[in-house]
Amino acid sequence: xxxxxxxxxxxxxxxxxxxxxxxxxxxxxxxxxxxxxxxxxxxxxxxxxxxxxxxxxxxxxxxxxxxxxxxxxxxxxxxxxxxxxxxxxxxxxxxxxxxxxxxxxxxxxxxxxxxxxxxxxxxxxxxxxxxxxxxxxxxxxxxxxxxxxxxxxxxxxxxxxxxxxxxxxxxxxxxxxxxxxxxxxxxxxxxxxxxxxxxxxxxxxxxxxxxxxxxxxxxxxxxxxxxxxxxxxxxxxxxxxxxxxxxxxxxxxxxxxxxxxxxxxxxxxxxxxxxxxxxxxxxxxxxxxxxxxxxxxxxxxxxxxxxxxxxxxxxxxxxxxxxxxxxxxxxxxxxxxxxxxxxxxxxxxxxxxxxxxxxxxxxxxxxxxxxxxxxxxxxxxxxxxxxxxxxxxxxxxxxxxxxxxxxxxxxxxxxxxxxxxxxxxxxxxxxxxxxxxxxxxxxxxxxxxxxxxxxxxxxxxxxxxxxxxxxxxxxxxxxxxxxxxxxxxxxxxxxxxxxxxxxxxxxxxxxxxxxxxxxxxxxxxxxxxxxxxxxxxxxxxxxxxxxxxxxxxxxxxxxxxxxxxxxxxxxxxxxxxxxxxxxxxxxxxxxxxxxxxxxxxxxxxxxxxxxxxxxxxxxxxxxxxxxxxx
Length: 630
Fold this sequence. Notes:
This is Sulfatase. The protein has 21 helices and twelve strands. With 630 residues, it is α/β, with parallel strands linked by helices. The chain has three domains: 7-81, no CATH class; 85-277, no CATH class; 293-629, Alkaline Phosphatase, subunit A. The longest helix has 51 residues, at 179-229.
């Protein structure tokens, strides 16, 4: 046959010969039995193979009688004209399909294990899957191959989510309650790179997930067809690989610390199933714990008697962790601010004590740290947060409200919509980003600079006359990643409505440029902490008085790109007061006498602070009020 003749012009018999749809003993032009014709995949067709087209798809039973499709005929003609290219393409596609399936089977869910050695192993799930596909009938095999590929792709997506969550939050992805955090991540991305950039990333992510689902399913189908055409060779290979796996497992053979005999996929599936079960069990147990509170029935008259008449401010500084004060790159600048701030406050008549708290979260999810600190419960996941904030467990801020001796307010620049949790926290009024009167630009995620939030607090609450002292919860957000652009400290009388920050924001650094280098990210993070600390210290200097009591702390460590792999979850906490009696009540805490906790300062779990604080400034639960406090 001439290579210039198109296949749709050939007689029916020659078309069948060109597409190799007829078995050898039915095809008058087929090769003799002692010289089997090679398939495009590189193997020899054997009498026990299923009928298949050269691209690996199976021929239907009625191929002989069917009128050939024009597109298929054109493709077959291309294969006839370019047999080497066709064979190379078929081989390449098969190899890529095998590589994709192997990578999905061996993909670790921990970024620390993303090494070449992880992919040089024998996956038992692949061996078992191949054995199963070999014995299934053709139709069932097709369905099973598609399902297996889809499930394998979904497991790979979960592995990638684990990797992302470990990098950002120091923990894996929880399939029960972490899905809403993907929306939070999209919002953060929009604040960091803009709406158009975030939309592009989201579309790309969706496309990649869909492509992974489709391509993995097609890859398994292709490999299953190849095994069916070469059933004897496939069975032998499967037996050899199975024997090798058993031998490697028995001998404990490893490659760069990774076992050659891998069962990582099945182990991860089991771990996810165990995680779901543990999560559901944890929900029930935590609900029981949250319902039991030693201070739950304590009358307001017996709470916080040692702070009556004081203006108490609880301030959370976003991402202010141990790394900020002890890392070789960031600590010099931050430590200098803390040392100078200690002296500045001392000159204004204040004293400070500081220690360490171990946060329930890491890298993000600040609300978990806030709720752990204020509730006295370990809130390390979203379900626990929902449970506790929907109940009536006594939060530290609500204890002030229960006394009736304080007006309780919240300054929440990070809240951009309704916040029903205000009831749980016992806040008489919450000033969110819409009520603080800000007319300036956003600084990436942060809706407004910390100095403006404190200025608004002074204008709206602290600087106005009240018939009661204030208890305030203030969230400072300028140190929220991506730490670019950053505001700068201004004279308090220049802050105004925030319009002055427009030129500062325009002159700031681009988050994309900052995040290209790890050292640059860490440097800008350190600067953001310096800014937040300077704003808070300056506020106390200018607007504090003899009744001011300030408790400030970090909510969690920054992400691993800044704090480093395997960083602790410790955050600094400090208590500042003008009245010496306030600090005398916590003398048995053995905190460091400065704003910067020393290396030997006590380290407590964050959920223990509430009870320690209530004990220090009021009687034990169940005891009577001391006569001196009545």
